[in-house]
Amino acid sequence: MGKTIVPPISHDRQQEELTAKAAWFKTLSVEERMDWLVEVTELALTFNPKLGDKKHVEPVEGRIRVLSQTQR
Predict the structure, then answer these.
(1) Geometric angle at alpha carbon 43, from 38 and 44, rounded to 5°
(2) Main-chain phi, psi angles of 55, to 5 degrees
(3) Residue 26: which of 7, 54, 1 has the closest Cα?
(4) Distance between CA atoms of 5 and 52, rounded to whole angstroms?
(5) Quick check: 51 and 45 in contact, CB under 8 A?
(6) Mind listing the pLDDT tens digit for each residue in 4-20?
(7) What is the value of pTM for the model shown?
(8) Would you kindly state where each structural domain of the chain is located, as residue ranges?
(9) pLDDT value at residue 50
């Protein structure tokens, strides 16, 4: 596993914008992204253990936007 570079902690509101978060996420390796996904999933299950009990979940109309790239 490679050495992870941890950026300095910032308390600037600009760092909380979605574009800044996306830029940070892009700097992570695939392994780091998966570790982050596991951490967030475990956090969600800690606060709501019943999340894992749902057998069949239907998508909610309008809650998720699926984007696709146009062919060139």
Answers:
(1) 100
(2) -85, -45
(3) 7
(4) 33
(5) yes
(6) 777 666 666 666 788 87
(7) 0.49
(8) 16-50
(9) 86
